[in-house]
Design brief:
Its EC number is 3.6.1.7. It is an enzyme of class 3 (hydrolase). One of its GO terms (molecular function) is acylphosphatase activity. Keywords: Hydrolase. With 92 residues, the chain is of the alpha+beta class. It has two helices and five strands; from the N terminus they run βαββαββ. A five-stranded mixed sheet has the order 4-1-3-2-5, covered by helices on one side.
């Protein structure tokens, strides 16, 4: 049986993404979808995230973040990076 390979993405979100519950919602969504990684606020008002899992699930997570109240994502810088061994999603 073919098993979809896990990927890891490094994402930087800009817009109204700090002070609106973004990191906690991201963690909740990641846990619900079985994704791993981390999320943290940056000094420049953006939010940085590394997320790992199936490509479709990562896409679903990003879509769900766009739908959250009070969060307004203006832009996402995105690049694929090597997968890591980890077992949870955390807030840094």
């Amino acid at each position: 049986m073919f098993r979809e390979k896990e990927i890891r993405k490094h994402l930087i979100f800009s817009g109204r993404v700090q002070g609106v519950g973004f990191r906690y919602r991201a963690m909740h969504i990641a846990q619900m979808l079985g994704l791993t990684g981390w999320v943290k606020n940056r000094w420049d008002g953006k939010v940085e995230m590394e997320v790992q899992g199936k490509r479709d699930e990562i896409g679903k997570m990003i879509s769900m973040l766009y739908q959250q109240r009070f969060i307004w994502i203006e832009d996402i810088e995105e690049k694929e990076i090597p997968a890591e061994k980890e077992s949870s999603f955390s807030i840094h």
